[in-house]
Structure formats: structure tokens, C-alpha cells
Amino acid sequence: MTKTLLITGGCGFIGANFVHRILRQYPDYRVINLDKLTYAGNPANLADIADDERYRFVHGDIADVATVEPLVAEADCIINFAAESHVDRSILGSADFLHTNVNGTYVLLDAARRHGIERFHHISTDEVYGSIAEGHWDESFPLEPRNPYAATKASAELLVRAFHLSHGIPTVVTRASNNIGPYQYPEKRVPLYVTNAIDDKPLPVYGDGLQVRDHLYVDDHCSAIDLVLHKGTIGEVYNVGGQNDVTGIDVAHAILRQLGKPEALIQFVEDRSGHDLRYALDSSKIKALGWTPLVGVDEAMERTIQWYVDHQDWWRAIRDRDDYKAYYERQYGDRLK
Ligand code: NAD
Ligand code: TYD
């Protein structure tokens, strides 16, 4: 059946992987990609499908009512990936995070209220729960965000919930753990470490490197979104995690080992302020819906590292930009001696 999906933030890491998946899996679907092309939005991520007649790119801001209104009127479903997504940047300054993550989500919801929509799928994160010393969060745990990025993602979720309950918007939410894979902007840890290691630059490990994250291969995240978009229960929230505990220092070692680089590249640096100790999701609810992750954590890491080895033009074009260099200097200039 033909459907028009309004995908926001499709030029970013996960959005681009998801646009690829939709065009591959659903020959009858049309995709409108609304993206502001911030520093993280990269048209090169979708260059291979740019001329596909089922695909349309709209350059614009999800917080701009005039842009959003006609697109929502045209769409059957909205999948909202657009966000400011980097914790360290949210600590340096939070205004853009409030603008896009909170106000932008509100503008999309309000347009959905006016025009009616089959599904509003909001992409969220495990970071809304805060930090958990042991055990795993299920979807009933309270939202206790601890950094500005997570606070804006939690705020967006509260709006999604309220618009579902007050206005009957048919919402679903997925909360995923740390994604890795192709097209991730090299400010996030894994692509930062891989690209630094290839160039024999230091790998900055915050604090003692014992913080734990759950890694999820981006294709498995996209298959989960696909499933919830089509089969999830309206009004529900679904955790999406790989159910593995990986420490920072383990990540650095795995990357250096695969690339054949020396451990001396690891540099312990001043910790992130308010650094969350551990994220860990219980994903049994989405598994009961039929989701099975296909790529284990070791293979996910291997494939991801190899992708950056094979696509140096992609990331060197980013790292050569003045805005990337300015961010790197601001974030690491005082940390890396
Ligand atoms: P990203 O930073 O790589 O991409 C974000 C995209 O949104 C970019 O293309 C950017 O140009 C666009 N964008 C930003 N502000 C916009 C605006 N106002 N209007 C329109 N477009 C705008 O992010 P990502 O890592 O792909 O994350 C996508 C979503 O998934 C986000 O909502 C994020 O919170 C969530 N998430 C990410 C992870 C992860 O590990 N990366 C994990 C869980 C959830
Ligand atoms: P990141 O990729 O920013 O994702 P998130 O904070 O959303 O989990 O960071 C992942 C982990 O890596 C987190 O514990 C912080 C740590 N980290 C470093 O140790 N050094 C770095 O340079 C970066 C960017 C992150």
C-alpha cells in the first residue's frame, strides 16, 4: 500500500540509515526528508538515492510552522529523528537543543493535531532514564535525565505523551541505546576514536573509562523502528537495546586492536561533567512484538570500524571543515595535552 512518510532529520546518522531501509523495503512508499542541515546533517549520506523519484528533500527547520504545515498535510506518518544529539555540545550550550528537540517536536505535534495523521513515531533515547548502577530499565521507569540533551529529549517525550492523551494523536515512541554504524558524525565516541586512531591521534577517554554503554548496530535500530511504526501499539513506548555492557576503555582497546594501533594512543582526560555511569535497557517488550537484533556487539563494532576505514573521503571531508576543527579545539584543546 502506498504511504507517504515525513522523515525529519534524514540527513543525520540514524535518519539516513532509516531512509535507505524504507526505500529498500517498501517499493510503494514515498519519503519526504525534512532536514535543516545543521553541522550534523550531511546530504552525502543520501547521495545514492537523491534522484530516486520516491524521495524528496526539503531543506528546513522542524520548528518552522510554515515549512512543517504543508508537509504534515501531505504525510500519512511522521518519523521524528531531527534533533541536536550530542551530550558534550549540550553541556557547552543548550539553546539549540531546546529549539529543535522541544519546540520542534511541539510544532510537528501541533501540525499533526490540525491535519490528522496515521502515526507519529518519535525517536527517543535511553538517556531519558538517567543512569542506573545495576539492573535494567523497562519502560515503566521514571524519566530522570541528567544532562541538558537528555532533559530536552525527555521534555519532547512528555509533549508526545500529552498530545496523545489530550488530542488523540496516534503516537509511538522508541528509546534506543548507543547506536554505532555507517554515517555517524565523528564527534560521537566510536567514529571519533576510529578516525583519530587511523591518523595516529590520541583517543580521549573521559575519567576512568569505566562508564558503561549498551551498543546497538544502527541497522537493528532501524528494523526496530520499522516494526514499531507498522505494528506497535498506539500510545506505547518501546525500549530498543542490544543488551550488552561495554566500558569506555573496552571500546578504545577493541578499536586499537582491529586497526593494529598502539595502546599508547589512549589518553585519560578530564571527565565529562555529570557523566552518566551506566545505561542499560530491558528490551523484552519490543522483542515480544517480534524484534530480533541480528548483529552482535562484537560484529557491530568490527563492521563499523571497517566502514570508517573504507570511507575515509566521507569523514575527512567533515574533519577538514573549520566548524569541526573549532569544536574539536573547544572540546579537547584543554583536555588533550
Ligand atoms: P544526528 O545528530 O546525526 O542527526 C540529526 C539530524 O537532524 C541532522 O541531519 C540535522 O541536520 C537534523 N536537524 C537538527 N536540527 C533540525 C531542525 N531544527 N530541523 C530539521 N532538521 C534538524 O543524530 P542521530 O545520531 O542520527 O540521532 C537521530 C535521533 O535518534 C535523535 O532524535 C537522537 O536523539 C536519537 N537517538 C540517537 C542515538 C545515537 O546513538 N546516535 C541513540 C538513541 C536515540
Ligand atoms: P557519546 O558517543 O557522546 O554518547 P553518549 O554520551 O550519548 O552515551 O559518548 C559515549 C561514551 O563515551 C560516554 O560514556 C562518554 C564517553 N566519551 C569519552 O570517553 N570520550 C570522548 O571523547 C567522547 C566523545 C565520549
Ligand catalogue: nicotinamide-adenine-dinucleotide, thymidine-5'-diphosphate
Strand arrangement within the widest β-sheet reads: 3-2-1-4-5-6-11
Helix content: 40-55%
CATH architecture label name of the largest domain? 3-Layer(aba) Sandwich
Helix-strand blueprint:
Elements: E1 3-8, H1 13-25, E2 29-35, E3 55-59, H2 65-74, E4 77-80, H3 87-92, H4 95-115, E5 119-125, H5 148-167, E6 171-176, E7 178-180, H6 189-198, E8 203-206, E9 212-213, E10 215-217, H7 218-231, E11 237-240, E12 246-247, H8 248-259, E13 266-269, H9 284-289, H10 297-310, H11 312-319, H12 322-332
Parallel strand pairs: 1-2, 1-4, 2-3, 4-5, 5-6, 6-11, 7-10, 8-13
Antiparallel strand pairs: 9-12
Helix pairs in contact: 1-7, 2-4, 4-5, 6-8, 6-10
Bound molecules: nicotinamide-adenine-dinucleotide (NAD) and thymidine-5'-diphosphate.
Describe this structure in words.
It is a single chain. The chain is α/β, with parallel strands linked by helices and 337 residues long. It contains 12 helices and 13 strands. It has helices at 13-25, 65-74, 87-92, 95-115, 148-167, 189-198, 218-231, 248-259, 284-289, 297-310, 312-319, 322-332; strands spanning 3-8, 29-35, 55-59, 77-80, 119-125, 171-176, 178-180, 203-206, 212-213, 215-217, 237-240, 246-247, 266-269. Strands 3-2-1-4-5-6-11 form a 7-stranded parallel sheet, sandwiched between helices. Strands 7-10 form a two-stranded parallel sheet. Strands 8-13 form a two-stranded parallel ribbon. Strand 5, helix 5 (148-167) and strand 6 form a beta-alpha-beta unit. The chain is globular. The protein binds nicotinamide-adenine-dinucleotide (NAD) and thymidine-5'-diphosphate.
